[in-house]
Amino acid sequence: MTVLPESASAPLRTVIVRVFLPFALGYFLSYLYRSVNAVISPYLRTDVGLEAADLGLLTSAYFLAFALAQLPIGVALDRMGPRLVEAFLLLFATAGAVLFAIGEDTTTLVIGRALIGLGVAACLMSALKSMTQWFPVEKLPLVNGIVVASGGLGALAATAPTELIVDAVGWRPVFWGLAAATLLCAVILLLVVPEKKRVGSAESLGSSLRTLGAIFRSRAFWRIAPAVAMNQGGFMAIQGLWAGPWLRDVAGMSKPQAATVLLLTAAAMVAGQLGLGFIAERLGRVGVKGLTVFAWGMGAFILAEVLLAAGWVEAAVPLWIAFGFFGTVGILCYAILSQQFSAALAGRSNTSLNLTMFAAAFAFQWGMGAIIGLWPQTADGAYPAEAYSAAFLTVVVLQTVAWLWLLIDGRRARD
């Protein structure tokens, strides 16, 4: 492991190979873990006997552990640096994947899933923090966009490619492979990524915690956080689990067909992660604010969900593509929020936003399972379309309230 002082610069190729790629791999794995249950859920139903509520709790355990880890991670990133924080946490993800691979009951699988969520909880924030240390400011929008897109590639890998592998060897060997890949990523981070002097590392723990309080007391934070939490939380809850069952139970698709639509949804997500940032940057040149772009994108996302809740199966493919594209619009708010605080607080402000977002994802994913489980299953183990409509519309109502809050508070700020 090489140690470079703050003033040192490294060749771009070295930075890409030794810094960008290891962190991009970590976020790729994080999103693969997040999304894989949408494909393996029917196997979990048959192999372990999970019902909708169990499946919702199991999958959402990832989000709960992820959310609870955010504030400590924010402090740790600003004090210890991204390399050590992510490498250490990935060991928990490795253990969780192993436990998931051998789990025979709901409790074991929930614990394994929670350990995975804890283990990958720093992957995106560590990557973004590291990019600010190693890349010039003018390249950060592009670099960060590519980092986020690497997560989209993880979501892509968790669809049709995973379905093919699971169909060939089973879901348990898939998690053994993920455990090995996660451990390898931790080793790479420790041995390959160079160290660099950290801004804010001399700050006391008490001061770090007081700063967290200031972030949560900020009006700028609470203007943005509810809408981002509802938008991204709903997106992750549905894309990471309930999209697959909807395609099979409501649209009547086979497992391979559903996996293909999930692949298209993930591809649209990658396009949204890259395209919406480009659109916001272009519109910003003519005076359109980033929050305005976010508000319009969130409105389009809610509309797509409403049509899915209505059971419009004839337009299932374009609706899920729209869902994937506009569901990523909340990523714009990281840059918007970071402008309200100093660079030394980047880790804490972003992880504070993450806390609200992943707490919402946990509540949505588990809550949707509980709602769907209120309806009896059919003879072939499917749930009726009415169950999914009720669950989706519950999410839509909460998102609409947060969206209106964003619009109303924005109007007050201008007055």
Low-confidence sequence ranges:
none
User: From the helix content, strand content and strand pairing, which structural class follows?
Assistant: mainly alpha
Shape annotation: globular
- Gyration radius from CA atoms, angstroms: 21 Å
Q: How many helices does DSSP assign?
A: 17
Beginning-to-end CA distance, first to last residue: 54 Å
Strand order of the largest sheet: 1-2
Query: What fraction, in percent, of the residue positions are helical?
Result: over 70%
Question: Could you characterize the architecture of this molecule?
Answer:
- The chain is mainly alpha-helical and 415 residues long.
- The chain is built from 17 helices and two strands.
- A two-stranded parallel ribbon has the order 1-2.
- The chain is globular and about 60 Å long.
- The model has no long low-confidence stretch (mean pLDDT 88).
Features:
single chain, 415 residues, mainly alpha
Brief sketch in words of this structure:
By secondary structure, the protein is an all-alpha fold.
Strand and helix layout:
Blueprint: E1 3-4, H1 12-35, H2 37-48, H3 52-80, H4 82-102, H5 106-119, H6 123-134, H7 140-157, H8 160-169, H9 171-191, E2 195-196, H10 205-216, H11 219-249, H12 255-284, H13 290-309, H14 316-326, H15 332-338, H16 346-372, H17 385-414
Helix pairs in contact: 1-6, 1-7, 1-9, 2-11, 3-4, 3-5, 3-16, 4-5, 4-6, 4-9, 6-7, 7-12, 8-9, 8-12, 11-12, 11-16, 11-17, 12-14, 13-14, 13-17, 16-17
